[in-house]
Amino acid sequence: MHCVKCGEKAAINMRQHKLALCPHHFLDWIPEQVERSIKRYHMFTKEERLLLAVSGGKDSLSLWDILLHLGYTVDGLYIELGIDGGIDYSARSLEYARVFAQEHNLNLLVQDIRHEYGETIPELTARTHRGRYKPCSVCGLTKRHVMNQIAVTNGYTVLLTGHNLDDEAAILFGNTLSWVGSYIVRQGPVLEADRTGLGRKVKPLCRLYEREMAAYALLRGIAYMEDECPFAVGSTSIYYKELLNKLESDRSGAKLSFYLSFLQAKRNGLFSDKVDDRAEQIHPCPKCEQPTSAPGLCAFCRMFANPDEQSQSLQLEP
Amino acid sequence: MHCVKCGEKAAINMRQHKLALCPHHFLDWIPEQVERSIKRYHMFTKEERLLLAVSGGKDSLSLWDILLHLGYTVDGLYIELGIDGGIDYSARSLEYARVFAQEHNLNLLVQDIRHEYGETIPELTARTHRGRYKPCSVCGLTKRHVMNQIAVTNGYTVLLTGHNLDDEAAILFGNTLSWVGSYIVRQGPVLEADRTGLGRKVKPLCRLYEREMAAYALLRGIAYMEDECPFAVGSTSIYYKELLNKLESDRSGAKLSFYLSFLQAKRNGLFSDKVDDRAEQIHPCPKCEQPTSAPGLCAFCRMFANPDEQSQSLQLEP
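Predict the joint structure of the above. Result:
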């Protein structure tokens, strides 16, 4: 397999694009694709204050690298979730993010949720009803809340995340299997700041496959946390990714087509305008002031409202 | 595993319903479910003239059997497609349909497409552009056209098909993977006769799994064509069924939930009313008078409009 641009030995073959590229041309191609997404979906300009959620993994560190290459100024935000899982997960992930930031002379904000809210993700998982059997639900809620809060209170106009196409397709697939209308209609490369207290969120990697991001990190020599989160093993999102990978291996481009045809159908008016009219019932949480559709406190603040709530297993102890 | 109703040895365990039943109670349960679907989706009454599309397979023959059991009067329609495939497919399928009709003293209409239109499905597949690599496309178009034409011209108010949940879920899955809005919004247990020349179509088995229909046919001793259509091997619809079966085996009820939550989302107004406004551009085909959105002849009549069209392989011959 040879690079279609120069004939050198190809480093990667992207069957969905019928495109094989050598390392050199692949490392040009990826930032071009990201720039195209930024422009196509009107994500942000070089004049805006940008905050990137950095996990220490390949996607977010590669995205930071790409954005620098493209001439954007971006600060990073690492959320210290306090996950050990026998592999010192959070501490090691933070270290990868720190090293990258230092080497590139970048600002990295670190928010430690134990310090800020008194509990780590494993502790919240053990204590709360939401957490029972579902650490990913507690973690997702926490990250969304903290990312938004830091972005808004620090005057960033756009929050960037490293979600790649595999992430986006798996989320869409899950929401479509159960036809959760309000989630389906809001999915996309850009989530507008259309509610008071809510920042703008964008996903510049939404058209790039996970394997492309892994190849980019490898070829750029970016050191990143390779272990999956120990809590994510057996999660629904990983299951859907595997199913979509099966589909992709049988029909090249199936994942990309699933996501892009969804965006096209949305632009073509497939969905009713009424689905997302929850906005009318949205109000600011009395505690944190982030928008919520729940009566009273938002789901995040409710998680901390009753600190004496114990997990079922603890309650059963004599 | 024991029957939840009488404690006898169960013949089938339906994990998605947490329901195990013995043969006796299963054979009661299936018609009850069909009757519930007929009522729930307002499919038809006992006073209407009903025509059932019969393929000779387990679904359509079992549905005929169930409808008799429930006291409906239903005529059958067999479409002779002229498929041999080395296993005498169409002729044997017709024989199963004929035997069932004779044994139960039922009317079976037979429409032979070679006799009526001059060509079999394999011949149409070989000759037409649509047919190239896609016999299922030619066959589906033909069956839809012929079923509708026979139902409308013979004064049947409702056309019934034996589509089961696996069929419906696979169709929905395919349409969702490519987000074909106009197909998605029209899918459901009932397709209304909302256009001149179009009969009402209903699918009374839409909530029943394929394995349940196979069990019903077996336990009722219904002789049916067990071979798949030789053209369907490797087809997209079978591929999607396999993928959904993988999902179902990992998560019981996933198929049913996918289909029912879609119907619920549709009722809840997820889709825009505008998607299906093709109706405005619909006109009767100048030849067959069935509704079409194509300019000029409908797709079916177009297939016969140019009988000199040759398949690519024939054209390439010296």
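Residues 135-153 of chain B form the longest helix (19 residues).
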